[in-house]
User: What shape does this take?
Amino acid sequence: MKTMKATVFHGTNDMRVEEVNRPHAGIGQAVIRVTLTTICGTDLHIVRGEYPVKPGLVIGHEPVGVIEELGSGVTGYKIGDRVLVGAITPCGQCRACLSGHLSQCGHGDGYEALGGWRFGNTINGAQAEYLLVPSAQANLAKIPD
Assistant: This one.
């Protein structure tokens, strides 16, 4: 499958379900097939224009799914595992992450305000059929069937 359906933000009160390119896992990444996601209060603020995000971005940041692809370097998981992906998306290696301040992840350097919240904020989010999970080792948690 080369495309997937996703909820794309186009502006205040302008959300559309569209066909977009399906992601593929690179080094240290995973792709999950989203089976469940919530609509967070933050999503409502985005739709209302109260929190700015880039038009064209897939929103959503609280998914559960099944691993479809694993990039090299991701250990302890296998295709078919049911996982939760946290709303905060730390790299697991920067100064903030190593200091226990995951929500202030600097993505490889220092600290960044709200740096850990990336899905639907600075990268494509979970209101889609598939989700690319960066730094998968730090962002996946197995859950029971």
